[in-house]
């Protein structure tokens, strides 16, 4: 049952859309200055397309990923430990 207190989000674009728009998320994150030791937040993280490379870039720093979807496992199509 939908939560009436939350604005219903649109469907998540498929991975082909993300890859066409941003073929190299690591390069995008480096270009905006994200690097080792930082604490970063991925707002509206969706399926984690930017989250996984963000974690790798900031290590040993911390990454927080937030999304409106109440079930991040359902939204994700990535294998995360």
List keywords for this structure.
flat; alpha+beta; 4 helices; two-stranded parallel sheet; single chain; 81 residues
What does this protein structure show overall?
This protein has about 80 residues and is an alpha+beta fold. Helix content is about 30%, strand content about 10%. The chain has helices at about 15-20, 25-30, 50-60, 70-75, and strands spanning about 40-45, 60-65. Strands 1-2 form a two-stranded parallel sheet. The radius of gyration is 14 Å and the shape is flat. About 15% of the residues are buried.
Give a short summary of the structure.
The chain is built from 4 helices and 2 strands; from the N terminus they run ααβαβα. The chain is α+β, with helices and mostly antiparallel strands.
What are the SSEs and their pairings?
Elements: H1 15-21, H2 25-31, E1 39-43, H3 51-58, E2 62-66, H4 72-75
Parallel strand pairs: 1-2
Q: Give the biggest beta sheet.
A: 2 strands, parallel
Please give the oligomerization state of what you see: single chain
Strand content: 5-15%
Q: Roughly how many Å apart are the termini?
A: 29 Å
The string of secondary-structure elements, in order, is HHEHEH
Q: Name the poorly predicted regions.
A: none
The main sheet orders its strands as 1-2
What is the total tally of β strands? 2
| Helix percentage | 25-40%
Average pLDDT, all residues? 81
> Please, how many helices?
4
What radius of gyration results from the CA coordinates?
14 Å
Identify the overall geometry: flat
Class by alpha and beta content? alpha+beta
């Amino acid at each position: 049952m939908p939560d009436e207190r939350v604005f219903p989000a649109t469907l998540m674009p498929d991975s082909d859309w993300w890859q066409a728009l941003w073929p190299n998320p690591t390069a995008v994150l480096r270009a905006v200055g994200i690097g080792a030791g930082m604490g970063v937040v991925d707002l509206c993280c969706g399926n984690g397309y930017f989250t996984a490379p963000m974690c790798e870039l900031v290590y040993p720093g911390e990454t927080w990923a937030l999304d409106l979807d109440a079930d991040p496992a359902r939204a994700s199509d990535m294998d995360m430990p």
